[in-house]
Amino acid sequence: MSNIERTLSIIKPDAVERNLDNEIKDIFKSQGFSILKEKKIQLEKFEAEKFYKIHETKPFYDDLCSYLASGPIVVMVLEKEDAVLGNRELMGATNPKEAKEGTIRKKYGISIDKNSVHGSDSLENAKIEIDFFFKD
Ligand code: CDP
Ligand code: MG
Q1: What average pLDDT score do residues 123-127 get?
Q2: Which of 30, 76, 94, 126 has the greatest count of CB atoms below 10 A from its CB?
Q3: What's the pTM?
């Protein structure tokens, strides 16, 4: 049975700053993801805080939110069979040093905080995150 899902992907400031957005979009497309929606924006700090509210109690929360708001990002809705897990696999581990060969974070990530991409971690969060950026 087919299980087409949508997930939210963000190309983070470190990657956009290095002009890697088209290259990263090509990787998604070559792996069979359709980019249904996309926009390049810069968040205000309070918007980044809202987006990452799930991490509010973590020690890295404030730096994480400052970083996400530090420059332009590319936000995309990706669609594919089992897109949520497929995107997480293609992204690789949170820490680029631990990410497997062939993953986006292995290829482009600089450090655990500047790890080039965000991807929803569950179907439920994917819906919430897609609404956060693309609610009409
Ligand atoms: O992005 P991912 O879902 O893989 O990781 P997360 O645990 O949900 O953390 C969100 C983001 O916080 C990560 O992508 C990192 O950029 C950042 N982070 C950090 O700066 N330091 C950590 N020790 C853990 C995460
Ligand atoms: Mg996460």
Answers
A1: 98
A2: 76
A3: 0.98
